[in-house]
Design a protein that fits this description.
The complex is a heterodimer of chains A (357) and B (268). Chain A is an alpha+beta fold. Chain A is built from 8 helices and 20 strands. The longest helix of chain B has 34 residues. The chains are: A alpha+beta (357), B mainly alpha (268).
Chain lengths: 357, 268
């Protein structure tokens, strides 16, 4: 990792009886796109506001650029924030909004106007300076908020669910743009989101939070392929769980069969006895009549299917397994969509399993 | 014909409400000291007699000073209460805010008598200040009601965003919150001013040697030949009140629109 820009040591936050943050330890590198991901109420926004300086920690330390931020108010921190509501000042024009942070900067009027124009151009709103802020669309407000925060050249840009108010198309477009902006500027971005897909698409690293604690901190691929717990696995993407029995490095999975697993497939360690084997839908496949494979196979019956156009999701009841497993298949010629009640073989690999206690 | 009866009721209702007020200007321009029909002729004599009554001018001045001071005091108190109500959570918030609004429904005579008892009990002498005290007490709930809608529609992130961009807490309030609630503040000032200006009962009980305008007018009613002059003054006051209330409501609505919120409440 590059130079550390933010370091949190055992950060605690209490609101009366409510324990919002429980011993958060975290370091974020310079120029990193970092995401805090979790369900609502998990403390991710509180953590972001703690870094911004809107909340004081109850215990622990927040270091920014190596400097202790205890008692440093938000207006003296080298961070800027894009708020969930965008918090665009409705009584000011777009240019006045974007230039708001430069009020105290020792700049001439021309320099200030040039900086505002440049910031607006950066977010694709060149020429919008004279418009009234309250007349903008959702996507435009988002861009103004971004320009307003970036004009101060912060060391860290904090984004509090910035895309949750946008429709799907616009959201995907803004995800690309945020990523491009972050690479172009080299500024550290910290994104708070409850959308796992958004976090996976955009981030260099992701901290998954539950109940004020970091459940797992990893890059997107590790997070998806080797979730540290069942809870993380269920939160990030889809995963089916089958009852299993561990003995040594051998696992007997109900419905699939016996196989050998590697250490890294059991994030919580392998212990002899009852366990659960998790597997992602795309790592299982249905075999059609006459299809050959050198992968392991099992037998099952389609109990439910959902057709998505490009994909079909099947719930398959495997012979000898308790609950059905979910399998996703690309819809390509020669692979007709199977009806409920159809019997089929299922192909799988030992490396695809993740073993949880 | 249900709608028809309702329409008749509405017309009667409005007639009872406004007919007496229409009589005011009617007799103010009538060329006779006797307040009775038929009208005898048109005159502006009563209006021109107004400035030639020094005691009347003095009472107008007293009333203006009291009304302006009351407007400022109750608006400042209203801002504090409305902001606290909109931004913070604290124990006993609902009962406290409820208690502040109570004078709105308390009979004025009760407020007046109890204030008089307290002030005399404390050994204070009655003056314009005691009237200001009483008026502030009854105007503050109105100010809070108006300012509540201005503050409640305000996004709390706005001030935080200003702080985040380098402003102090006070300058954030001044640069962002104040301009956005300014229409509410103006409308609160105007309504408190209007209420104080024509308030009689509290002023009557608590006034010292300088009577307010309504108190002075009430005293003049004993002299029949002065009544047309009082009518003239009343006409001016009604016109001013309507004007002020209209302006106040205009500003309140503009404020709600500017903060981008929904219109909830208001007086007109």
């Amino acid at each position: 990792m590059t130079k550390t820009i933010i370091a949190l040591h055992r950060v605690e936050k209490h609101y009366g009886d409510y324990h919002a943050l429980r011993g958060i330890d975290l370091t974020i590198g310079e120029g990193e796109f970092f995401s805090l991901l979790g369900p609502s109420g998990c403390g991710k926004t509180t953590l972001l506001r703690t870094i911004a300086g809107f909340e004081q920690v109850s215990a622990g330390q927040v270091l920014l650029d190596g400097r202790d931020m205890q008692g440093v108010p938000a207006n003296r921190r080298p961070t800027n924030m894009v708020f969930q509501s965008y918090a665009i000042f409705p009584h000011l024009s777009v240019a006045q909004n974007v230039g708001f942070g430069l009020r105290r900067a020792p700049l001439s009027r021309q320099d200030r106007a040039a900086a505002v124009d440049q910031a607006l151009a950066m977010v694709g709103l060149a020429g919008y300076g004279g418009r009234a802020a309250h007349a903008l669309s959702g996507g435009q407000r988002q861009r103004v908020a971004l320009a307003r925060a970036l004009i101060l050249k912060p060391r860290v840009l904090l984004l509090d669910e910035p895309l949750s108010a946008l429709d799907k198309k616009l959201r995907e477009q803004m995800q690309d743009e945020l990523r491009r902006l972050q690479r172009q500027l080299g500024i550290t971005f910290i994104l708070v989101t409850h959308d796992q897909e958004e976090a996976l698409i955009m981030s260099d690293r992701i901290a998954v939070m539950f109940e004020g604690e970091i459940a797992q901190l990893a890059d997107p691929q590790t997070l998806y392929r080797r979730p540290a717990s069942r809870r993380v696995a269920e939160f990030i993407g889809m995963m089916s769980f089958l009852p299993a029995r561990v003995s040594g490095d051998e696992v007997e999975v109900a419905g699939l069969g016996r196989c050998r697993v590697e250490r890294d497939q059991a994030p919580a360690g392998l212990r002899d006895g009852d366990a659960h084997a998790g597997i992602r839908p795309e790592l299982l496949s249905l075999l059609y009549e006459g299809e050959q494979t050198d992968r392991r196979t099992a037998l099952g019956e389609v109990v439910e299917r959902a057709y998505f156009g490009d994909m079909t999701y099947y719930d398959m009841q495997l012979d000898g397994a308790g609950a059905p497993v979910t399998i996703s298949m690309k819809n390509i010629p020669g692979r007709p969509v199977l009806e409920r009640g159809a019997k089929a073989r299922v192909a799988w690999d030992a490396r695809s399993l993740v073993i949880f206690p | 014909m249900r709608g028809g009866w309702l329409a008749v009721y509405a017309v009667l209702y409005l007639a009872f409400l406004y007919a007496p007020i229409v009589l005011l200007p009617l007799f103010a321009f009538n060329d006779s000291t006797i307040i009775a029909f038929p009208l005898t002729g048109f005159t502006t004599r009563w209006f021109s007699e107004l400035p030639q009554t020094p005691a009347l001018i003095a009472s107008v001045r007293t009333s203006l000073v009291i009304a302006v001071t009351t407007a400022i005091l109750s608006t400042v108190l209203g801002i504090c209460a409305a902001r606290a109500g909109a931004r913070y959570r604290f124990p006993g918030k609902r009962p406290i805010l409820g208690f502040i609004m109570l004078p709105l429904v308390l009979p004025e005579i009760i407020v007046a008598v109890s204030l008089l008892v307290v002030i005399l009990g404390l050994g204070l002498s009655l003056s314009s200040w005691t009237v200001i005290l009483g008026h502030t007490l009854i105007c503050t709930p109105f100010s809070i009601a108006i300012l509540n809608s201005a503050f409640a529609n305000l996004d709390a992130s706005l001030e935080e965003a200003a702080v985040d961009l380098g402003e102090s807490r006070w300058s954030s309030f001044r640069l962002v919150t104040l301009p956005l609630v300014m229409p509410g503040i103006i409308s609160s000032l105007l309504i408190a001013f209007t209420i104080s200006l024509d308030e009689f009962i509290i002023a009557f009980f608590l006034t010292g040697s300088d009577p307010t305008l309504p108190v002075y007018l009430w005293g003049q009613l004993r002299f029949p030949q002065k009544i047309p002059v009082v009518m003239a003054l009343g006409t001016i006051l009604v016109a001013l009140s309507v004007l002020l209330l209209t302006v106040a409501e205009f500003f309140r609505r503009r404020g709600v629109a500017r903060a981008g919120g929904r219109d909830t409440g208001g007086f007109l």
